[in-house]
Amino acid sequence: MLILGVESSCDETGIALYDSAAGLLSHALHSQVAMHAEYGGVVPELASRDHIRRTVPLLREALARSGRRLADIDAVAYTRGPGLAGALLVGCAFAEALALALDKPTVPVHHLEGHLLSPLLSATPPSFPFVALLVSGGHTQLMRVTGVGEYELLGETLDDAAGEAFDKSAKLLGLPYPGGALLSKLAEAGTAGVHELPRPMLYSGDLNFSFSGLKTAVLTLVREQQEPLSAAFKADAARAFQEAIVDVLVRKSLQALKQTGLKQLVVAGGVGANRQLRAAFDDEARRKRYRVFYPELEFCTDNGAMIALAGCLRLQADTPAKPAGAFAVQPRWPLMDISANGTK
Ligand code: KG4
Ligand code: ZN
Fold it and tell me: Looking at the whole model, is its pTM more than 0.90?
């Protein structure tokens, strides 16, 4: 079974071909980051227009690299939500129209399910069940994953997402959008212990997070400084911020493993690319004897491969494909709505 995957929920256009027997055949990606950087954040209308420009060339590229033809595709999976309404509509219209022309069914996919299952694309995938820490620009959730479509929400952020906190703090330190990866790089030059930042909700007794206070703490630090901020201050503040957020993410994830009795942890989403976060998890994994799995770096941020994979796994798990031609997206869509055993 050959599945075409289409991702267009935010500022990346991703197209991929996934074969149920051979695995991922090819994927092509275009990031709009450079285009939005000028405005300090994603401009939804520009995002939609760029998705329109990119989808067909990316499809050609992915097809050429896969060695397959359009006619070989058995179903078209695409991100139905959550995300930007206009951006989602471009991918949906493209996928539904293509499937209609090919006389093939479609599989609308939940974007977060794509992230959750993305480590299954790697050479050493986890097996079910596992705890998943989903850390992206829009979400921070801890989930118990028992199987495809079997997700239990263990905890989530009450305000900013981890990636959002990275990006907002990076902005306060004068870094361009999206600042997550740049802040992480800057932190490498910083000295530990120069600034102490709070670890919000570390002892809350549950698995929820809150990051807006951490961002405010960075703002307070910045306000205490004289302009222009020195390079040393920026690096030390970046280091303090990163250490605080990594500490909270790691310790809450360990609590989730303890609470569920599970031994495998999956770290997915854009922030999962963070080197210090990975180092901290690897370190704890060695000491506490659990296993931690990450998607390949290129599949941490948004991509079409995870959507093609999720579509394929859904079909294999007997989720019926639907006839092509219905153009509906779901910009707001809680993951628990698609879970067989979810609790809210
Ligand atoms: O999963 P993703 O591509 O998009 C969403 O679905 O939100 O995640 C993007 C987020 C951004 O906030 C970005 O700054 C953050 O992931 N990010 C990082 C790193 N790479 C990407 N944050 C910290 N360290 C990184 N290395
Ligand atoms: Zn994402």
Answer: yes
